[in-house]
Amino acid sequence: MAGPLPIGDPAPVDGRLPADLPMDPSTPFSAYMHVPFCRVRCGYCDFNTYTSGELRGARQDEYADTLGGEIALARRVLEDIGGLRPMDTVFFGGGTPTLLPPGDLARMLDAAVSAFGIVEGAEVTVEANPDTVTPAVARTLADAGVTRLSVGMQSAVPHVLAALDRTHRPENVRTAVDAARDAGLDVSVDLIYGAPGETLADWEASLEAAIALDSGHISAYALIIEDGTKLARQIRRGEVPAPDDDLQADMYELADERLAAAGFDWYEVSNWARGDEYRSRHNLAYWRGSDWWGFGPGAHSHVAGLRWWNVKHPAAYAQRLAASESPAAGTERPDPVAHQLERVLLETRLSDGLAIGDLPLPHRSRVAGLIADGLVDGGAAIAGRIRLTLRGRLLADAVVRALTD
After folding, report:
1. Which domains does the chain possess?
2. pLDDT tens-digit profile of 168-218?
3. What is the CA radius of gyration of the chain?
4. What is the DSSP letter of 179?
5. Are the beta carbons of 293 and 5 closer than 8 angstroms?
């Protein structure tokens, strides 16, 4: 299970949003559907997920109907404040959404479309463990309106998968991708690098295997050791080595080189796409500060600068909704300083970059030093935007500190 929730102000029991929120009906609106179920807990994961033995008071077969209760609440709340808009993107994440029957996912999507509407050409993504995707599952999802499958490949090397506690068979990644493509779905593949015992050659093998799948999108994330996870405990006890920063940097550079050669362009520090049409529009909504409602236990939401988050356990979540109460546990409205920090943090990670004119005057003068250090692209800066170089992507946190401290 994930770490503690943020500390914020108490959330209204009825879920009502403040009347003074600066609602802008032109701001895109997205929905995130959290499915908190996993067959096993991966050693590195600190997401809000639960295996069957941890549910205690919540039923997986009732989850779609329970989440539908929050969708109904969200419609009332947004309608009251003039914020009701059709969805631009929908994302089913977890956990393992495809542990639910595809019909349940379809009902959740139908409930959201009925409540909010959905724009023509909307992106609807479902995350999937490769072992849970069959042609029948893919066809049912496509028929329901899903447009994109995000496949958790992580690695093509068995001992690396074992180090991550991933249980899927490497060959099933190809099976899942083919099933999705045959059903007319776009495909994204997720990779993780820097696992204990993973070599540069192992990582190269995984990259080549992912590229060979011919998907339109590949994500590659450095393994981060989160407190409270099994992997953190193993490292603390000296059972496995901690990730090597230099090796992870070499792995990132190799990924950028191989993916570029295969026709992928980076558009966010950890994401590459074969053309703009394959970029994750849902994740771009987060990075660009759009509005979204996060449905499900532990899910976070953001509307017009206000943030809130739900209670974590599926049983507590279900109990709140059964009592006609909001499942929100806390809320906050970041001040202008915090908002500016977040904007710099997120937008500098994008290849589109951050407008230099959006920085406070004292911080604009630091851009020249970042160019001299090889962290920011000089040509892009002349055009008025901060765009990270390859070295800058490896040291993105240092760039953010320079532009905000």
Report:
1. 29-287 (3.20.20.70), 335-405 (no CATH)
2. 989 999 999 999 999 999 999 999 999 999 999 999 999 999 999 999 999
3. 21
4. H
5. no
